[in-house]
Amino acid sequence: MSRTLLAAVLLTGSVLSSIALSGTAMAANVDFKATLNTASEVPPKTTAGHGVGMFSLDTTTKMLRYTVTYSDLTGPATAAHIHGPAAPGVNAGVAVPLTNSASPMTGTATLTDAQIADLMAGKYYANVHTATNPGGEIRGQITK
User: Which range of residues forms the domain containing residue 39?
Assistant: First the structure.
């Protein structure tokens, strides 16, 4: 094999390896949404409160970014969380506390592999708590 042909084969192999490896190094972002309302709380509430949560998971870093906006609550939000694992209509413990309960709430959280699996399976919900409704005033299941 000539030197030129050998160099071309090695270069082609190197380029193909780089392309293949670059695909595995890229992060995949998965987006989720939750529509928060009083009817989804368990038990349901009868206030004018409502909201929307937008979530984006970087599957490489396991970082979840969130923005939750809400309005018309019975008073200031006292806390907000992601709860689970739970199906709609079922209550569960806090999985991820959401920081800064003033609307819009923005932040990040690093999830475990188990939390990622539950999130992907639709087993998490977000809710916002108030003094009038300490167990939660608005709630929404987080789905893709």
Answer: 27-141
